[in-house]
Every structure is written in structure tokens, then in C-alpha cells.
Fold this protein.
Amino acid sequence: MSIYGLILGICFVIGITFFQKNNQVISKNKENLFLFLLLFSGLIGARLYSVINYWDYFLKNPLQILNLRGGGLGIIGALIFSLLFIFIFSKINKISFLKITNTIVPIIPLCQSLGRFGNFFNHEIYGINNQPIWLYESILMFLLFFILKKTKSHQTGIYLIYYGLIRFFLEFLRLDTIPIYFLSLGQILSLSFILIGFIIIKYENSHN
């Protein structure tokens, strides 16, 4: 196992353990299936985003798409696919989407912070003038982890806004971006996260 894979495995264990300890939303007989499908969805989304980001490389080396040990997992893709899965799961099982996400979200920044060290060992995510983008994001997500620990409401909305802001500004320093006019794909998606975060907070306030 690579160090990258080991770090991801540790993050998965931390996230799963936290959810199992705090879950009061999903019945125990569906919990394991939910977690498995959530992780699977996140991995698919993360890999898909990376493949899109490095399309020229993967077009020439299609077998490398399956080489997860080599790195290349985009958190933006993981977040999008995970949220889509939770939304579908919540509708099928008639469970509140936000009750599920608010149970999971508080631990996600810690997992992201630790996960960025996998990029360090893989020598990834360096930006303009060789700046350690992975380290900047790791520190900022660690701060978000403590913010959410002190927050008793709006965890999902706060997470989306905070992470959207972090990613939007760090994208200016990255070299591995997909330009779309004067922004990058990551920045456009980050702005979407921020908007959705505010909508979620407004929705929760109107239903309290």
C-alpha cells in the first residue's frame, strides 16, 4: 500500500467512526450500505473530476484511470457526487437530506486536512512559484474543523461556504486548472458551493 492510500484509508476510518458514533438519522440496518455507497460515490466523483482535469494525460494513458494508488482524486468531484448520492438516498428513504449531511459534515474538514498530506507524499498540488497549495488548504480546513466543532447549527451551509471560499482563492495559485473564460472550472464550482451554502442556511432559518 502506498503512503497516499494509507492516509486516505485513515481518513475513511475517521469519517466512518464519527458518523457511526453520531448517527441518529439512518437506521442501523441501512447504515453500512449507506456508508459503502457514500464512499463509492465519493471515489467515483473524485476520480472523474481528476480525469477531466488531466484529460490529455488520461486520453493517452487510459489504463491509468484505474491506478488510484498514483493519486489523482479531486475533492470537488467527491463532494458533488457524495451530495448527489445523499440527496437520492434521502428521497428514497424519506429522510431529511440536511439531517444526514449535518451529521457527516463536521468531520469532513479534518479528513480533508489530513488527506492533503497524501498529496505531499505524492508530490502533488504545488502552484505558482512552487507554492504548497496542499499545505495551505490543509491548514485552512483544519481551522474549519474547529469552527464546526463550536457550531451547533448550519453545519452543511457553513462548510459549503467556507470550503467554496478557500478553493476559489487557492485556484488562482494552482497550475492544474481548467480555464473557462476568466475563471477556472474549480472556481465556478466553488461559487456554486457558496451559493448553495447560503440557500441552505436561509432554508434552515425559515424552517426553525
Observations:
- The first strand starts at residue 179 and ends at 180.
- The chain has one domain: 3-206.
